[in-house]
Amino acid sequence: MTTRPTAALGPAELAAAGERMHARLVELFPIPRSITGNGVRSTLARLAQEIPLAVHEVPTGEPALDWTVPREWNLREAWLRGPGGEEILHSRDSSLHVLGYSVPVDRKLTLDELQAHLHSLPDRPDWIPYRTSYYREDWGLCLPHRQRAALQPGDYQVRIDSTLQPGRLTYGELFLPGQSRDEILLSCHICHPSLANDNLSGVTVATELARRLAETPRRLGLRLLFIPGTIGSLVWLARNESATGRIAGGLVMANLGDAGGFHYKKSRRGDAAIDRAVPVAIAGLGESVEIEDFAPFGYDERQYCSPGFDLPVGSLTRTPWGRYPEYHSSADDCDFVRPTQLAGSLAAYIEVVQILDGNARYRNLSPKGEPQLGRRGLYKPVGGGEAGRRELALLWVLNLSDGDHDLLAIAERSGLPFAAVREAADALIEAELLAPI
Ligand code: ZN
User: Which phi and psi (to 5°) does residue 436 adopt?
Assistant: First the structure.
């Protein structure tokens, strides 16, 4: 019997991948990213050392559905000095200190005037919040509340040396072709500066996944997008509208390294193959997953699942955005993300991709009574254990291959791992008991 190639990793390989993903995350962490600018470029350049990423540059002003590509923002440095000339904060210490998309500033102002531009978290006084103002011109500084509360009256000097000018929006795309013209879409956002779980975890797992799956033959093509949140998916959809019909299923990748268990947000359709594949994949790994219906907020699934596209795209995460206190703050750092959790997320994504890739519908060619398996070398006289499970899978596949059930449905109903069902189908095809529909 021919064995189907698998991309699943053994425990030692998975542990090594976890360390590699975390090391990549640590390396990317300090880069000052935003929805446009050189931080995104250098992030993509770093990823392109490992995977054959195509980098797209889209000019400011290009329409993207109901939106327009914004001006490009770059920050050289920013600092705040107190009444005595002392340095209070400097952008070299954290890319979170500057409100994203701050316009340039170089002025003296009183503490009262300054307060209107400061952002802090009173209930988390040691953390720096992450704030942006992409679509309204503003400037601001973010700092720990403890430090803000200690500021004395007097004259402050603020300098934000930034540029906000016509330029380009940059995104990365990787396509691994399959035998079929249909494809799987995986999308992650790369617009956050020094934040680890949201979303360098998604970026590093996507990169590792691409490295791994590039080596495995596949039926479905695999497309990975590394894009700035919201505007990046809008741009991609606008530019690739005619190709969206090929998307057989997809996931938005984010928050994949915190200590939490898996969480799946369904596609807008709710019953797409991806919505059935994720629970089967996670159960097959012996883990549990919390499942939530689609809602029109969150990450880029908002765009993929807008009614004019209605793509079968869900989002598989660990703890969802906004539901952990470290979210969008300096506490979402490299220590908050664990190598073992990244490794578990990678295993889950590989499993989901393999299920979508291996799913198909067949017809039992000998449906009247059970066909005699022993005669065809499919029945092992000594049962129990692995052999018992293998036989059970053969019987389930034969019984439910009536044209109405795909292999995913057979895995769901039998409770068997998808790989066992797939393997049984391959054996039955070889024995000429099963034919594709
Ligand atoms: Zn975020």
Answer: -65, 150
Sign of the CA dihedral with 126 first, then 132, 38, and 231 last: positive
pLDDT tens digits along 181-224: 999 999 999 999 999 999 999 999 999 999 999 988 999 999 99
> CA 32 to CA 337: how far, in whole Å?
19
Q: Annotate 112-147 with DSSP letters as a single string.
A: HHHHTTEE--TTSTTSPB--B-SSS----EE--HHH
End-to-end CA gap in the chain: 22
- What domains appear along the chain, each with residue ranges and CATH number? 11-69+168-358 (3.40.630.10), 73-165 (3.50.30.90), 361-436 (1.10.10.10)
pLDDT of residue 152: 96
- What distance in angstroms lies between residue 28's CA and the mean position of ligand 1's atoms? 16
pTM: 0.96
The CA 195 to ligand 1 mean position distance, Å, reads 8
Neighbours of ion ligand 1 (CB under 5 A): 198
* Coil/strand/helix, residue 169: strand
Backbone φ, ψ for residue 15 (5° rounding): -65, -40
Contact at 8 Å (CB) between 131 and 140?
yes
CA of 35 to the centre of ligand 1 (A): 11
Distance 189 CA to ligand 1 centre (A): 9
Q: Rounded to whole angstroms, what are the CA distances from 220 to 28, 92, 248, 374? A: 30, 44, 8, 34
